[in-house]
Amino acid sequence: MTSINIGIAENDRLEIAQGLKRLLADSYTLYLQTHNFHWNVTGKQFRELHVMFEEQYNALALAVDEVAERIRTLGVAAPGTYKAFAELSAIEEVEGVPSADEMIDILTRGHEQVVRTSRDVLKVAQDANDESSASLVSDRMREHEKTAWMLRAMRENG
Prior knowledge:
elongated
């Protein structure tokens, strides 16, 4: 690839890209879990959860593309295999088909993990004055915080 001169030092670009790879892996793993739960949810809240999970996995599909393209913009190859995502992601795979309530809890923890990963990447991007990555990550963080809140609200009594 040709030289990249976008005002971010090479070491910083590589460190930001590595953080974005973790964000991409967490987001893609969460996408897969959400899509799986959309297909397999049952119970009294079936319709509501089926529709909610579809909205969430569609949003995640767009998000992973944005994150991957930012990694490429920084001059680094974006991971794109299950193996790479499994190695990079902090989100655990789910075995079997959990109950609807367990699905909500699992997805809540997944969105919270994406927020924590985002916070780590955000600090690196801000320290390197990479406003483009910081803005992207900040937007992702806000969306995952909101989604986690909505999922938690579904489990509250009252």
